[in-house]
Amino acid sequence: MTFIEVRDLIKIYYTKEYNVRVPALRGIELEIKEGEFISIIGPSGSGKTTLLLVLAGMAEPSAGYLRVGDVRLDQLTDDSRSLYRRFKVGTLWQIPNRNLIWEISILENVEIPMRLLGVPREKRIKDAKELLSEVGLSKRYMHKPSQLSGGEVQRAGLACALAHNPILLLADEPTGELDSKTAGELLRYFKELNETHGITAVMVTHDFDVAKSTDRLIQIVDGRISGYSPTEKLKTIRDMHHVYLDRYGGIQLPRHIVDKLKVRREILIEEEDGKIFMHQNDKNNMKKAKK
Ligand SMILES: Nc1ncnc2c1ncn2[C@@H]1O[C@H](COP(=O)(O)OP(=O)(O)O)[C@@H](O)[C@H]1O
Ligand SMILES: [Mg+2]
Predict the structure, then answer these.
(1) 51, 63, 228, 239: which sits with the fewest CB atoms below 10 Å from its CB?
(2) Could you tell me the pTM of the whole model?
């Protein structure tokens, strides 16, 4: 079943001070299944964080269709969007102090979202301890974030993100400040929680190695989906042979192919027996290329 459905999603930032409009998402089309763990990869400034913010209900889409579970995010008022954000979504950010309060223990941190839901104290403590042991921190309940290592802090953040039992887990470059070994460890816990809790998860990263540990990888370039691929068998980003054909017939070619093109404005295209051929020069060359 499709859990997240995004159609022609557009997000334009408007900066009043300079009277400029920046198109950050330019017609995103996306479907994510329930329980799937996907990664969104793309260069800096391509719209990864914006897509996550819109999915999190932290930014209003400018246009398009956006459904998460049975919530139509494109139709929500500001008030109902903030309720959605608070109760339905768990987030994990790159910068640890966005995930945790520094002055209190990680147990108390994980308890806070439960407290907001009115969970009784005993159950809160029991559930928070369980979540923390699920991220390998069973002996560290009473420690404050400052007493933990970088990887442990992110794992505590992960427990915190799941404390209110959200329907969607969103992470923005959660391994950005970790070395590769510690990053791998966090991802293993992430994947395990995604599976045991059956929670749909979307992780943004610019690191291919990190993206590879998820079920499916989606590439975003200049605010549009350019490619997608299951991650098994994917050795490098150049192995991404699937591109997304949107409802209007639009395709965004992968960046590594675009970089090789000499002519960018017009290309020749031919279809034969279900195969599509594209060519930069003349048609004769294309016939030759097919042989
Ligand atoms: N609050 C904002 N106001 C104006 N422009 C923004 C804002 N946030 C992001 N942008 C612009 O939108 C584009 C996409 O940004 P972002 O989603 O942060 O990309 P990424 O996370 O892939 O680096 C960039 O051009 C960025 O400068
Ligand atoms: Mg970003």
Answers:
(1) 239
(2) 0.91
